[in-house]
Amino acid sequence: MNALHGYERAGAALRITGEFMTSLFSSASAPPVAYTRTAIALHWLIALLIVCGFALGWLMTDIPGFTPAKLKYYSWHKWIGVTVFALAIARVLWRATHVPPPMPAGMPAWQRAGAHGVHALLYVLMLAIPATGYLYSSAANIPVVYLGLVPLPRLIDPDPALKATLKAAHVALNYGLLALVAAHVAAAVKHQWLDRDGVLSRMLPFLK
């Protein structure tokens, strides 16, 4: 009988301990209400660099010939691309190790799927666009010297045909990114000021 009571007490103690640990870990791993400061900083820094990269891209291609100003803009454009590529990798790694805030509870399933799809494509393009630009420079036998200080390796041999293909891909991907960014911004504005579900405030906490 004493042994039976001992087993019951031990079982009760284990059950209580298990419930306590479950509640402890579930509360500790609860989804955050906003993105981390690191995620926010990476988001807006990459966004700013992308805007600058777009502006330089249009500006430099409108300048006829190969003036010193045009060559300078090309260098800046390449530096921005390399920086965006590195920051995009950092952002992917951060996202993989930090739980993002959940979507609003009332958001329809199709909007959730669309948001996840747009985010995934944005990550792909943030890597693919700099990669095609860098490979284009290699195929065109144009060196890339990061910040004018660090020569980057040429990954492929000069190839006129491949150069044309990579240039076309780089331009097309940029237009795709422009369309996705426009959709991303429009959706964020809609959710913040029409749906009023606080989506944008997760990335801009001062909007709360």
Protein model, in words:
The protein has 208 residues and is mainly alpha-helical. The chain folds into two domains: 1-30; 34-207, Up-down Bundle (Fumarate Reductase Cytochrome B subunit), CATH 1.20.950. Helix content is 72%, strand content 2%. Helix 4 runs antiparallel to helix 5. The chain is elongated and about 70 Å long.
Task: Compute the number of strand runs.
Answer: 2
Overall form: elongated
CATH architecture of the largest domain: Up-down Bundle
CATH topology-level fold name of the largest domain: Fumarate Reductase Cytochrome B subunit
> Number of domains in the coordinates?
2
Helices and strands, in order, run as: HHHHEEH
Uncertain stretches of 5 or more adjacent residues? 20-28
Backbone CA Rg? 25 Å
Helix content: over 70%
Strand content: under 5%
N- to C-terminal separation? 62 Å
Placed side by side, the strands forming the largest sheet appear as 1-2
With helices defined by DSSP (H or I, 4 residues minimum), what is the helix count?
Answer: 5
CATH class of the largest domain: Mainly Alpha
Write down the overall mean pLDDT.
Answer: 87
What would you call the structural class? mainly alpha
Largest sheet: 2 strands, antiparallel
For this entry, what is the oligomeric state of its chains? single chain
